[in-house]
């Protein structure tokens, strides 16, 4: 009887699969029922068809597998190459990031036995791209082991200076070469779009890392100035073959590389790389079209720490005059509305440790400093120390309220952070966003994906600064102005 049930389950599953797998603009990801009564696991697939960062411009699909029954998820409206991330949790645990799919792909995921839960395989239409990505990612472990044993590219943490930098860059080149060779082993099996996008991701990640290495080298004051000359000769070279702009724009690794490149070029020019207007004007002048839109969007949306709010608002408003992509325009418009000094603070309703609801109206007539943090954030500890040891003693008898907002989705992580005494203090009103985590509307309204982050609300309940300074002196100056 049990065998008959299993066969009927597989038959029903396959009928459902066939009915969805052959739509012209669909992609099917599935796993067939097995003969094991393994525990439950959930599958979440995040899909993006254009530039995406921190789950902006994405669609989500979910399924649950119980007692080995498998799962089937159909992704819709796929008209060209797209990217997905697959997160599997429970009896199985995998995370597959930045995998490419094409219209009408039907990819089966094969899991290993219960004794080999870490093994995974792929078959079906479009599976070669998955096999390639898995192989390229797996090659990283081989690269790491080889680098450890090669003295010409092995760099100890204590090693500094131009010589150590050049070894790090040589190691990065070796990593890149090995990963591209693995990609080329699959080239004849991949569509041009999938190959180009994977190539862009690999090169973009490598180049962004190299520019960051050089940037940190130049910022290290312990290294003699003469070693920092003639940096141009060790900068990465442009991509070796032409990639369509639309595919370049889908790679957050590539956009991250252009961002790092512009940062370093600004630093080498002698300009202040921390000036939002200097960087904005440089990128606006250096790039055009979609690349200009995306590099500026990357910078403005995800690097908002300590900037001057007026400059930040100016840049957002200016972008609306030339950004053409509708999805990007909507992101910029919403962000401008959120950070404008004319807008009311988001009407959040968050619970404190005792379950009491905390609202902005609880602090009517007061300046509110909102401090966002998560357990494990090193920068958050520094901000918490400034608030606890400097700001609170100065403003405890004035109309200033300190609200500490934890963004962890798990209550246990929040409570552990509170009990550590490092991320906030008893003087602050401590609240948590709950199980939604970074998807809570309060956080998405202000595009808060990373911490630390501060927002200052005026006595009138309107945004005073969406990006107040993060240093002690700057915060004191702005708080004094907000109290006037």
A few lines on this structure:
With 484 residues, this protein is α+β, with helices and mostly antiparallel strands. 44% of the residues lie in helices and 18% in strands.
Structural features, described:
There is one protein chain. The chain folds into three domains: 2-125, Immunoglobulin-like, CATH 2.60.40; 134-273, no CATH class; 350-483, Glutaredoxin (3-Layer(aba) Sandwich), CATH 3.40.30.10. The chain is globular. The mean pLDDT is 83. It has 484 residues and is an alpha+beta fold. Strands 10-9-13-12-11-14-15 form a seven-stranded mixed beta sheet. Strands 4-1-7-8 form a four-stranded mixed beta sheet. A hairpin with a 4-residue loop joins strand 9 (350-352) and strand 10 (357-358). The longest helix is centred in the middle third of the chain and has 28 residues, at 192-219. The protein has 14 helices and 15 strands. Helix content is 44%, strand content 18%.
SSE topology sketch:
Elements: H1 2-21, E1 27-31, E2 41-48, E3 59-65, E4 71-75, E5 82-90, E6 94-101, E7 106-111, E8 120-125, H2 127-149, H3 161-185, H4 192-219, H5 245-250, H6 252-268, H7 276-286, H8 289-302, H9 309-319, H10 326-339, E9 350-352, E10 357-358, E11 367-373, H11 378-395, E12 400-406, H12 411-420, E13 429-432, H13 441-445, E14 453-457, E15 463-465, H14 472-483
Parallel strand pairs: 1-7, 11-12, 12-13
Antiparallel strand pairs: 1-4, 2-3, 2-5, 5-6, 7-8, 9-10, 9-13, 11-14, 14-15
């Amino acid at each position: 009887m049990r065998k008959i049930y299993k066969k009927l389950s597989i038959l029903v599953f396959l009928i459902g699969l066939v009915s969805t797998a052959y739509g012209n603009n669909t992609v099917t990801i599935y796993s067939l029922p097995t003969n094991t009564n393994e525990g439950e696991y959930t599958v979440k697939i995040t899909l993006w068809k254009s530039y995406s960062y921190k789950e902006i411009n994405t669609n989500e699909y979910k399924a649950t597998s119980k007692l080995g029954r498998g799962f089937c998820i159909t992704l819709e409206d796929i008209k060209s190459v797209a990217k997905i991330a697959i997160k599997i949790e429970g009896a199985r645990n995998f995370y597959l990031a930045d995998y490419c799919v094409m219209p009408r792909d039907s990819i089966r995921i094969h899991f290993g036995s219960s004794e080999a839960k870490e093994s995974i395989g792929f078959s079906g239409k479009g599976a070669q791209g998955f096999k390639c990505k898995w192989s390229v990612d797996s090659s990283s472990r081989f690269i790491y082991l080889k680098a450890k044993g090669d003295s010409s590219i092995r760099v100890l943490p204590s090693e500094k200076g131009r010589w150590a930098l050049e070894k790090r860059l040589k190691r990065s080149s070796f990593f890149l070469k090995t990963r591209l060779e693995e990609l080329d082993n699959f080239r004849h099996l991949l569509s041009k779009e999938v190959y180009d996008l994977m190539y862009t991701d690999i090169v973009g990640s490598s180049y962004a890392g190299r520019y960051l290495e050089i940037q940190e080298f130049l910022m290290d004051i312990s290294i003699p100035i003469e070693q920092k000359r003639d940096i141009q000769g060790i900068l990465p070279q442009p991509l070796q073959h032409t990639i369509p702009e639309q595919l370049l724009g889908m790679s957050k690794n590539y956009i991250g590389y252009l961002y790092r490149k512009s940062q370093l070029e600004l630093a080498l020019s002698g300009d202040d790389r921390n000036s939002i207007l200097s960087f904005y004007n440089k990128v606006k002048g250096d790039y055009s079209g979609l690349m200009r839109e995306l590099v500026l969007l990357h910078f403005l949306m995800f690097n908002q720490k300590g900037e001057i709010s007026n400059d930040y608002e100016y840049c957002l408003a200016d972008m609306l005059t030339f950004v053409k992509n509708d999805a990007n325009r909507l992101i910029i418009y919403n962000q401008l509305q959120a950070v404008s000094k004319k807008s009311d603070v988001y009407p959040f309703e968050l619970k404190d440790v005792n379950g009491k609801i905390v609202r902005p109206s609880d602090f009517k007539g007061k300046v509110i400093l909102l401090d966002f943090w998560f357990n494990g954030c090193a920068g958050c500890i520094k901000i918490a120390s400034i608030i606890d040891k400097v700001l609170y003693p100065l403003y405890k008898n004035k109309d200033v309220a300190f609200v500490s907002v934890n963004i962890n989705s798990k209550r246990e992580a929040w409570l552990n952070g509170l009990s550590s005494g490092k991320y906030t203090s008893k003087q602050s009103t401590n609240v948590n966003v709950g199980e939604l985590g970074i998807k809570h509307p309060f956080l998405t309204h202000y595009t808060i994906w990373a911490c630390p982050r501060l927002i200052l609300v005026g006595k009138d309940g309107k945004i005073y600064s969406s990006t107040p300074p993060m240093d002690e002196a700057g915060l004191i100056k702005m708080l004094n102005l907000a109290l006037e």
